[in-house]
Amino acid sequence: MASQMSERIVQLLNEIEELKARREKEIEEFRVRYLGKKGEVTKLFEEFRNVLPEQKKEFGRKLNELKQAAAAKIEALKASLEEAAETPECSFDLTKPGDACELGTRHPISITREEIIAIFNKLGYSLAEGPEVEDDYHVFEALNFPPDHPARDMQDTFFISSGKSPILLRTHTSSVQVRTMERRKPPIRVICPGRVFRNEAISARAHCIFHQVEGLYIDKAVSFADLKQAILLFVKEMFGESTQIRMRPSYFPFTEPSTEIDISCNICGGKGCNICKGTGWLEIMGAGMVDPNVLKASGIDPEVYSGFAFGMGIERIAMLKWQVRDLRHYFENDVRFLREFETSL
To answer: pTM of the predicted model, to two decimals?
Structure first.
């Protein structure tokens, strides 16, 4: 299967490179053929689910390159048609040297997101994604937030519509975990990266838009020790082998018991500095054992299965990894700031 998929990717890349179009209709046909819901690239992403875990990183990279190549080709064809329509024939000097094209760089959030995914991919976690515009059930009710529960006030929500089934912008990617549990039977081992929204004032430490990665592992006899080991392996891979973790009791409606997880400060080595406020520790995520009510809501028997969940902010991980002091830098698209991460590629 792997060799067939690899051959198909190469074949599609060659086809895309040779694409030519004289009309907008042809470009749209190309888009549907390759990137539509039933397109060739979409089919390969569906087949990707069956790839062996040790091959997922390689084929995931190839599939992303294929998708980007298709999108770039289609945009190039559109630009070519627009230029041909606006520019009369022979209105420019074909012998004149072209303008140098300045290369850009990837965003630190994208770099951090892919690094987190790669680490958990090594641990056997697959990728799960879901809609950013969600219903109240998947964001709150299925996660043990009753309609009048005060825990709903923990998150300031952007509601789009009210009524019996309110529609809102998701406040966490835990909604993807719910949808995954509804669709799949255990064992389940997924991470859910994505953009989330909360009605918060924008400052150096907070923003109304940010990115999360949440993880979920459900199987028979999953214990709190499994959660601790998974997080410890992650932080050592992300921040260095000498990194230690500390777990503090906390509260989340969808996990019991719940914990906040700190790592030893990677700036001062745990000795205490202004970044960790002299404590030697930095908070990175919340986690806990999945509450039995959450399992029941998704049709999973808590008498047979148990599991753990965790969630972290990608901006927070990036801030700690590169000592970024102001969250707003991530959203301003200042080229000077972005170029600082070219060496991280």
So the answer is: 0.67
